[in-house]
Design a protein that fits this description.
CATH superfamily of the largest domain: CRAL-TRIO lipid binding domain
Shape: globular
CATH architecture of the largest domain: 3-Layer(aba) Sandwich
Radius of gyration: 21 Å
Largest sheet: 5 strands, mixed
Strand order of the largest sheet: 2-3-4-5-6
Strand content: 5-15%
CATH class of the largest domain: Alpha Beta
Helix content: 40-55%
Distance between the termini: 81 Å
CATH topology of the largest domain: Phosphatidylinositol Transfer Protein Sec14p
Number of domains: 2
Number of helices: 17
Oligomer: single chain
Number of strands: 7
Length: 321
């Protein structure tokens, strides 16, 4: 006997259920219709199967992040997914060989130069990430090594954190103990790569960046970053100097770690919990190395570091005698 299939009930995708508040935000701001997700996921998979150059994760949760990041526009989700893997493949120094047990990387993980804070301002609020470059010694670690740790943290959050995926992310950049040596690591080349990774190559929505404890010399790097940002992200930059009261107007004091007068507990406890989590993802990061784009197979023009970041061009003419 054949099995009767009820055509009217859609197959439910294998997704973490959103909280009521985040589900409402997804519906209102991202135009999410749960009954349509499965159909869109099938369309994304069918498209990926026809893209000879992309090797992608295809689980429901991963692909849904692109639908949400593109307000459920299927065409934009395809573009974003292609760009996500294109940028990552063009940045092997940030995205490959991310073994959390490699000694130098493990030191950076345990230092926690960046860490997501445990609480959000409202149940449907963006995830807040605290970045503290002053904790590492720039003569010992390259900015690429530090950033590789950031990309690991970001990948885990994209996999686990519904606030991040639905509501976006907000950064606090604390520049205490930053020296000129830190700032000199931010070459225009690196800044362009980093902003492209977080802006074009990411499905996440940026909800603002707050700079605190800014030393002199900071303006140079700040202006450099600003130049590479799009208009929307540029309008969401806030410089508070050493005035934490003006930061509290945007991010309530209670959200912040003890060291910033808040109730989120000591920073080191948050960092230690994250270090444990990152180490537990060791196999995942190993697996990640197999995903990306093969530009030799891309229909049309290949995209590489040169075409994406336009960095080689400016040096070429110097080599002509």
């Amino acid at each position: 006997m054949g099995v009767l299939i009820n055509k009217s009930s859609p197959i439910m995708p294998n997704l973490r259920p959103l909280s009521a508040q985040l589900a409402k935000k997804a519906a209102d701001e991202l135009f999410e219709k749960p009954e349509r997700i499965d159909e869109d996921l099938a369309a994304l998979r069918a498209w990926l199967a026809k893209c000879p150059h992309i090797k992608s994760r295809t689980d429901d949760q991963f692909l849904t992040m692109f639908l949400r990041g593109c307000k459920h526009s299927l065409e934009r989700a395809k573009e974003k997914l292609d760009m996500y893997y294109t940028v990552r493949t063009a940045l092997p120094e940030l995205m490959r060989n991310r073994d959390p047990e490699e000694p130098k990387l493990l030191e950076l993980i345990k230092m926690g130069a960046a860490v997501p804070l445990p609480n959000t301002v409202t149940p449907d609020g963006p995830r807040i990430i605290l970045v503290r470059p002053g904790v590492y010694d720039p003569s010992k670690y390259t900015i690429q090594e530090v950033f590789r740790y950031n990309t690991m943290m970001s990948d885990i959050m994209m996999k686990e954190d519904d606030n991040l995926v639905v509501a976006g992310q907000m950064g606090i950049l604390d520049l205490s103990n930053c020296t000129m040596a830190h700032f000199l690591q931010f070459s225009p080349t690196f800044v362009k790569k980093a902003t492209m990774w977080s802006q074009e190559g990411s499905p996440l929505r940026q909800k603002g960046f707050h700079y605190v404890n800014t030393p002199s010399g900071f303006e140079v790097v700040y202006n450099l970053f600003k130049n590479f940002l799009n208009e929307k992200n540029r309008s969401r930059l806030y410089v508070h100097g050493s005035n934490l009261d003006s930061l509290y107007e945007h991010i309530p004091k209670a959200m912040l770690p003890t060291e910033y007068g808040g109730d989120a507990g000591p920073i080191q406890e948050i960092v230690d919990a994250w270090a444990k989590k990152i180490i537990s993802y060791r196999d995942y990061f190993k697996e990640e190395d197999q995903y990306g784009t093969d530009e030799k197979k891309r229909p049309g023009r290949p995209k590489n570091a040169d075409s994406l970041f336009g960095l080689e061009g400016s040096f070429r003419k110097l080599e002509v005698d």
